[in-house]
């Protein structure tokens, strides 16, 4: 597949001033968004490790379920933040450029998420 060259706008994380993509779709995120997403995932990862530890320590079922519910809520919140950003940036920009395929992609993704 032909490679595409993208410029890296000021304040956006990524390697170098240009980034070449080959067959993979990528998105350069503003540094604040990038850090926020990684921080959320790190907290979720910690919650999952905590769940594993609770099972290993034979914790009471309800305590494990409460922790699992908190981890599930945190992951759901992560998805909402990412989805909101995707709609405001990727989808909006592509629709403005006449690429309505992003709307179809979004609808399919939402249908999967709502199962």
Write the layout of secondary structure elements.
Blueprint: E1 4-7, E2 18-21, H1 31-56, H2 61-96, H3 101-113
Antiparallel strand pairs: 1-2
Percentage of helical residues?
Answer: 55-70%
The strands making up the biggest β-sheet line up spatially as: 1-2
Helix-strand makeup class = mainly alpha
Spatial shape: elongated
Q: What's the number of helices? A: 3
Q: Could you list the spans in which at least 5 consecutive residues all have pLDDT below 50?
A: 1-22
Measured distance between first and last alpha carbons: 34 Å
Report the biggest beta sheet as strand number plus sense, adding barrel if it closes. 2 strands, antiparallel
Q: DSSP strand (E) fraction?
A: 5-15%
Arithmetic mean pLDDT:
84
Radius of gyration: 19 Å
Spell the H/E element sequence.
Answer: EEHHH
Using DSSP, what is the number of strands?
2
Q: Which descriptors would you attach to this protein?
A:
about 120 residues; 3 helices; elongated
What does this structure look like?
With 115 residues, the protein is mostly helical. 65% of the residues lie in helices and 7% in strands. The chain contains three helices and two strands; from the N terminus they run ββααα. Strands 1-2 form a two-stranded antiparallel sheet. It is elongated and about 55 Å long. The two termini are 34 Å apart. Residues 1-22 have low confidence and may be disordered.
Summarize the structure.
The chain is mostly helical and 115 residues long.
């Amino acid at each position: 597949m032909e490679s595409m060259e993208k410029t890296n706008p000021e304040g956006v994380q990524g390697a170098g001033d240009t980034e070449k993509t080959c067959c993979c779709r990528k998105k350069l995120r503003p540094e604040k968004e990038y850090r926020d997403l990684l921080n959320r995932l790190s907290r979720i990862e910690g919650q999952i490790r905590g769940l594993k530890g609770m099972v290993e320590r034979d914790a009471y079922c309800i305590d494990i379920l409460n922790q699992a519910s908190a981890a599930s809520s945190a992951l759901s919140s992560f998805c909402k933040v990412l989805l909101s950003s995707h709609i405001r940036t990727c989808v909006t920009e592509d629709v403005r450029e006449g690429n309505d395929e992003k709307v179809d992609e979004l609808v399919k993704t939402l249908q999967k998420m709502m199962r």
